[in-house]
Design goal:
By secondary structure, the chain is of the alpha/beta class. It is built from seven helices and seven strands; from the N terminus they run ααβαβαβαβαβαββ. The protein has a seven-stranded mixed sheet with strand order 3-2-1-4-5-7-6, sandwiched between helices. α6 packs parallel to α7. The chain binds S-adenosylmethionine.
């Protein structure tokens, strides 16, 4: 079938929003500006860190956390390969220590939870430390700032963590925060999904 030229043109750059991480990037793209300060709470292989480094640009700053040496070195290598190491501070500690290290108000924070793809599947994010870090991050958000949280209920421990994060998010005061849950209705209940927390613009 011949397609209308305009429709074809409009669709050329459309991203397939099939995954929680893609959807998180979609929101971050709309909110993070050059020069902003942001956090990647779980840098893993560095994909989210690199994405954030691109959004904040040379004048911006990214703090990236992970507890695994491999994650920190993979992220460092990826950033170096793209020439943006200098705008990222890599913190080889748990994100629950964020308050002591991040010193400026944040326009966004990314939590991509679970285990390191291609790494040790037993080293997972845990409800207690994740919620502690989220609590710290929201206290540093500027008005209009967002936190994206990709949750993976499909692995052992992932469902408990997702429940704890949802309980924490549901208790945020609606006067100060908008809290959204994005879940694909045509996928299994074990599929990854996304929570979005926005400090309401004043
Ligand atoms: C799904 S992976 C992150 C993927 C990553 N954002 C990327 O783009 O490749 C989850 C990561 O969380 C890390 N992690 C687990 N507990 C943590 C903690 N308390 N603080 C920071 N990172 C943690 C794991 O080591 C793992 O690398």
């Amino acid at each position: 079938m011949k397609r209308d030229g305009n429709i074809a043109d409009n669709n050329r750059d459309v991203v397939d929003l099939r995954g929680a991480v893609t959807l998180a990037h979609h929101f971050l793209k709309g909110r993070v500006r050059p020069g902003d300060r942001v956090v990647d709470a779980t840098c893993g292989n560095g994909n989210d860190t690199l994405f954030l480094a691109g959004l904040v640009g040379a004048e911006g700053r990214v703090w990236a956390f992970d507890i695994q040496e491999d994650a920190i070195s993979n992220t460092a290598a990826l950033l170096a390969g793209h020439g943006c190491s200098s705008r990222v501070e890599l913190a080889p500690v748990g994100h629950e220590n964020l308050l002591g290290l991040v010193t400026e108000p944040l326009s966004a924070a990314v939590f991509n939870l679970g285990f390191l793809p291609g790494g040790d599947r037993k080293c997972i994010t845990r409800a207690e430390t994740t919620v502690a870090a989220l609590e710290q991050v929201v206290s540093m958000l500027v008005p209009g700032g967002i936190v994206t949280i990709a949750l993976y209920p499909g692995h052992d421990g992932g469902d408990e963590e997702a429940d704890a994060v949802e309980r924490w998010a549901a208790a945020l005061p609606p006067h100060d925060f908008n809290v959204w849950r994005h879940r694909q209705l045509n996928r299994s209940t074990a599929a990854p999904y996304l929570l979005l927390v926005e400090r309401r613009p004043s």
